[in-house]
Specification:
single chain, 89% helix, mainly alpha, 2 helices, 57 residues, 0% strand
């Protein structure tokens, strides 16, 4: 079962991908960079959740 950090991290990663693609499509570099940043943050948060999950086993 996924914990809160895993779910929030995955969601932030997905939103970041959408934001990056939208920024690329409209030529907005700031939006594209923000999307990339969100993806990194989401992956880190999901990693924290994965680590918590492994420790609880």
């Amino acid at each position: 079962m996924a914990n809160k950090d895993q779910v929030k991290g995955k969601a932030k990663d997905i939103v970041g991908k959408i934001k990056e693609e939208a920024g690329d499509a409209v030529g907005n570099d700031k939006m594209k960079r923000d999307g990339q940043k969100d993806q990194v943050e989401g992956k880190v948060q999901k990693g924290v959740g994965d680590a918590k999950d492994k420790l609880s086993d």
